[in-house]
Amino acid sequence: xxxxxxxxxxxxVGKKAVMAVTGAILVFFLLAHMIGNLKVFLGADDxxxxxxxxxxxxxxxxxxxxxxxxxxxxxxxxxxxxxxxATSLALRARRARxxxxxxxxxxxxxxxxxxxxxxxxxxxxxxxxxxxxxxTFHVVNPKGDGYTPYERVVADFDASRWYITVWYVLAxxxxxxxxxxxxWSAFNTLGWRxxxxxxxxxxxxxxxxxxxxxGFISVPLSVTFGWVS
Amino acid sequence: xxxTLRIWRxxxxxxxxxxxxxxxxxxxxxxxxxxxxxxxxxxLIAKGEEPVAFDHDCREGICGMCSLVINxxxxxxxxxxxxxxxxxxxxxxxxxxxxEPWRAKAFPVVKDLVVDRGAFDRIIKxxxxxxAPTGTAPEAHSTPVPKPDADRAFEAAECIxxxxxxxxxxxxxxxxxxxxxxTHLGLMPQGxxxxxxxxxxxxxxxxxxxxxxxxxxxxxxxxxxxxxPLDVIGRLNHDYIKATAGGRKQ
Lengths: 229, 250
Fold this sequence. Notes:
The complex is a heterodimer. Chain A has helices at 4-10, 12-37, 44-56, 66-96, 117-136, 149-156, 162-189, 198-224. Chain A starts with a helix and ends in a 5-residue tail after the last helix. In chain A, helix 5 (117-136) crosses helix 7 (162-189). Chain A contains eight helices and no strands. Chain A is mostly helical. By secondary structure, chain B is an alpha+beta fold. Chain B folds into two domains: 3-111, Ubiquitin-like (UB roll) (Roll), CATH 3.10.20; 117-130 and 141-245, Fumarate Reductase Iron-sulfur Protein, Chain B, domain 2. The longest helix of chain B is centred in the first third of the chain and has 14 residues, at 33-46. Chain B starts with a strand and ends in a 6-residue tail after the last helix. At the A-B interface, helix 1, helix 2, helix 4 and helix 7 of A face helix 6, helix 7 and helix 8 of B. Chain A: This is Succinate dehydrogenase. Chain A: InterPro entries: Cytochrome_b-558 (IPR011138), SQR/QFR_C/D (IPR034804). Chain A: The chain crosses the membrane at residues 67-91, 112-133, 162-183, 204-228. Chain A: Keywords: Membrane, Transmembrane, Transmembrane helix.
């Protein structure tokens, strides 16, 4: 097995399996992140307390910020492996068809989401960079250091900065499209999709995509429209 | 019917090739697509021009020889139908029809619309078989096969190896072909001894031939003239992961 893994990863199926597993890690993270975000509706104290708890998780068994750091490392590794596999498969696909069709290639299967996976993924990456600079490193946040997480969120999506809200909503919708195909696709990649559970898996993917999209966009929209201040 | 054909013409593997326009007239609605090309070729020969080269054999929809990407769709607009079984009544009078060969690095163009599908033969050679003693066929009931397995295996065995899945795939992957073979043989008791080695060996050959990787777009199964379902790819993935990461391979 120890020798098998690198060889597995070199194969096209192995690369997709890596994408499925890392994608699953990221989906679970998104769900947890979304539930945390919704605390904003319980008020500033709850939200900030939750934010602080993320750093004190596991104390006193482990030192301050240990579990959060471990989680961050897992996420960074998952994102890198996910992108690495995707890029490798995209380059391989380009090499596999050096002469393109003259006639416009018609798509007969699946739907819109499937065709957004590659460029959508790149836009999501750009969004993540912005999002980290904004609410993790406070570089592009109007409030920045010295304020509470709640204050930073409220300042960020202020009605005067509507374009930031639009950017966040668009990015989250792309994440939703990504999940609508990705969650279902992961099951097929790992060989867990059968003719009998296909409808269930499509439903699951749609539900996960819908919940994540609505959960995430509710926060910036509520701030912009003044329902949270 | 009166039609304008735009056909890919390429003198040989080294030639650059281009789309050439041919007007045809007096085509019967009941002619098959290949018969329509036969009419064009007769005219071209009469005029002293080089006829259009295309693959065909049984013209009954079972041999897997005919190909052609018609208006951007492998085997044309009709579902679950090979090009030879596609009839001209599926087109409008006066329509412009694009005819191109399968496009994949692993399927190099030999001439015009003919591509070399030897890559599929090499994939089969690397594992698409079972080892059985030769001689008299054994009594059919001596090896029972559960009915659902027999049905799924038969469904996968319908693959005629035409390559439409590769032509339709945005990644140029042959995963549907590969999955059909792995499912067909891997479901039968006779296919068990080589099951895990087969899937690894066939996938390695597939990748080495320069086909792309599957990203579950589902274009292949729609283009497949035999309607091979997408779940054969799930089974391929499942068997491959079990064979390698699960350590089943010898």
